[in-house]
Amino acid sequence: MLIFHDYPVQGALFDMDGTMFDTERLRFHTLKQASKELIGQEFSDEYLMQCLGLSAKASEQLAQKFYGADVPYGAIRKRADEVELEFVRNNGVPIKKGLIQVLERLRKSGLKMAVATSSRRAIAEEYLINANVYKFFDLLVCGDEVEKGKPHPEIFLKAAQKLNLQPQQCLMFEDSENGICSAYDAGGITILFKDIKEPNDHMLSKAKFYYADMYECLNALDEFIPEMGMPQLQELFPQSSNQLTVGIHGFGAIGGGYVAQILSYWDGYTRPKRILASTRNRLYLESVNSFGSYSIRYGQSSYDERIDNLTVIDADNEQQMLEMYMQSSLIALCLPEQAIESEAKTIAKGLLARFMSADIQNNEPITFLIILNKVCAKYLVLKHIHEALLELTDEDIAEHILSEHYFCDTVVNRMVSKLSDQALYRQLNIKHNLFKQYQNDLNPEAIELSDETALTEQQEQQITHCLDDMRGQFQTGQLLQNMDLILFHSETDMPIYVENRSPLLSKMGFVAQTYL
User: Fold this and answer.
1) Pair (397, 342) in one structural domain
2) Between 177 and 506, where is the model more confident?
3) For 411-428, how does the pLDDT look when each residue is reduced to its tens digit (9 = 90+)?
4) Containing domain of residue 465, as a range?
5) Is 228 part of a structural domain of the chain?
6) 367-370 and 328-333: which strand pairing?
7) Terminal CA-to-CA distance of the chain, rounded, Å?
8) Close Cβ partners of 115 (under 8 Å, ≥ 6 residues apart)
């Protein structure tokens, strides 16, 4: 049970379109396209706005008032469904930012959960499965399973009943006027989100709580849900991914051997959908991307920690680096001091590209973790980035760009070491031989190993062949999937102290000024 603003809560009932998924705009587009095809004119925004939250039957009755009794609403809706499904299957369901984090917190608080949507079950199930959120819900009640659609309270009453709960024990999440009236009349603890339609006074009067977006709701929930606390060694990373991409600029001992773990754990509820990490070490890049994961070895505890949602990119590939800066919400700068000045040029290009982008997502601030054990490292980094920006743009834009983002100093005890190229080379050769043996195709020819640090040309060719061979033949369930690629050795006592200046860090559990 969750105590939320003095309300004892045992269930959570979610509307789907407009609340969890940003599909109302898509629906408007497909209905306009379908109506244009079938009746020669697009459905008006006025009509579509009034349809928000209505059942199919109620929407058809409204269409008859707008366009005449003979309007082929069923055919238009069917065609719109086809266009919408094609888009979703090709591009995925557009999920509201922060949704996964909210669902994880509610589920881990022990709540029973259901979807109460005006959409047909066939559509609802496909969308929930496509968005990978079906797993959070105990049941669905859909528009084709009730006699009276929203704004009638039947759908929420039925969902609460199926969960064996009273409506007043349930949070009810909605975005439309018809939906919030339905939840209010059902007697639930109503939560209203802003979507296409700006909430009017009537809608707000029906809502016990109003949030502009999921992140506002997430912040409110976090006041009443216990933090997960510091992870223990051998504690599994969260299994659900949020919608965030994060970056590590410098896949070295600290970047790959420690920061990647922090980012993989995230807030204990979810983890980023993707971690991008840059390096100029071709062997590390090819190895990690071939295996799809790597491990950090804790020798004192006889434990290997696997990192499996990280992609290594080429630090000399400008396009890949720009994409990291365009897509990431957080970037850890794990660079040696002598590299800051030269790498600042890449950072400046990425920040300018993000600033110039028309995509509103790219205009959100980046949180920078500056992993450089130096007093006032932040000011050194800012100085070089500012100088690099001035080579690309004018002073006003440079100052504006730097003011948009959060730069946070950190202190890390450096107790991580990475394998030398020769050690990794030997490891890969052993794993390749095991792989070939598993396929009953062991190559008896062995290349002589060296204790030197750098690889010879022959060794580079050999390891390229090994990686190409394993990558080309790898299939799920084969031996390679279970081969841990050990890249780093770490001590277990690894505190990181972070200057918490970013809302994103607060969401991750960086309380006060430090995270231990």
Assistant:
1) yes
2) 177
3) 876 567 777 778 777 777
4) 421-441+456-490
5) no
6) parallel
7) 29
8) 13, 14, 15, 16, 20, 124, 128, 137, 139, 140, 141, 142, 159
